[in-house]
User: What shape does this take?
Amino acid sequence: MNKSELVEAIAGSADITKAAAGRALDAMTETIAEALKAGDQVVLVGFGTFAVKERAARTGRNPQTGEPLEIAAATIPNFKAGKALKDAVNQ
Assistant: This one.
């Protein structure tokens, strides 16, 4: 499912226009991104938790040459699914 299909599904489910659903989805993703940028986590009970994790520096390998290279440490977004979401997927 891509973004436009998700917007369509939200609009149909919530009985709102596609434009309103698109604005709501954009607002949600922007708000989550801003919270993560600030170092906060976003907990949606029953759905999951968005947080940031620190990924350590490591040695990688250039797939074309096989030559080792250093990959810098980074802060990455992380999502952990909640129990209700896991249960819904596994039914």
In short: The chain has two domains: 1-40, 41-91. The chain is about 45% helix and 30% strand. The first strand starts at residue 42 and ends at 44.
